[in-house]
Design brief:
6-stranded mixed β-sheet; 3-stranded antiparallel β-sheet; 9 strands; disordered N terminus
Length: 168
């Protein structure tokens, strides 16, 4: 009987502990947000009600870099994660954020992080990696110019074969 009571109490504590963890479920891996779009949103499960009144205005940061050394980029709108009923907040990105891969950090205790996702800024100038312009009218090789070894050997083989036919 004691074992059953202890197990039930432990499960109840686990239930309370997991209810106070905020898990970000949007943006997802492979999703793309735009600086020109007002449809970007952060979605989560759980609650941060354990933070008391502070849970009504939790700081949200845009981060960049590898997971071991994320760098702060910008502060976004604070969100209210005090309730399990409301689990979404719209986000407007600053217009000067360059295109790239980012993640979200919600400053709960401990902090909650999103997956890496892409941000596209339509104002970014496209980069080109074009090589030199092709030559319009290539000049034929000059008389006496070096031939590639494969061509030289093919021509030499043809000449030898012609010589043998002449001798026969």
């Amino acid at each position: 009987m004691k074992t059953t009571t202890i197990a039930a109490a432990a499960l109840a504590l686990v239930g309370v502990a997991t209810a106070d963890i905020l898990a970000i479920n949007n943006p997802t891996v492979g999703s793309t947000w735009s600086t020109a779009d007002n449809n970007n949103f952060i979605g989560w499960t759980g609650t941060c009600s354990f933070m008391g009144n502070a849970s009504r205005s939790v700081l949200v940061d845009l981060m960049k870099g590898p997971s071991g050394s994320l760098q702060f980029v910008a502060s976004l709108q604070p969100l209210d994660c005090s309730s399990e009923i409301v689990n979404r907040a719209n986000v407007t990105l600053p217009s000067d954020i360059p295109s790239g891969n980012y993640s979200i950090r919600i400053q709960t205790t401990p902090p909650s992080y999103s997956n890496v996702f892409a941000i596209v800024n339509p104002k970014d100038k496209p980069t080109t990696t074009a090589g030199p312009a092709p030559t319009q009218n290539p000049k034929p090789p000059a008389a006496g110019a070096m031939l590639e070894p494969k061509i030289f050997l093919a021509m030499a083989g043809t000449a030898v074969a012609a010589a043998f036919q002449y001798l026969l």
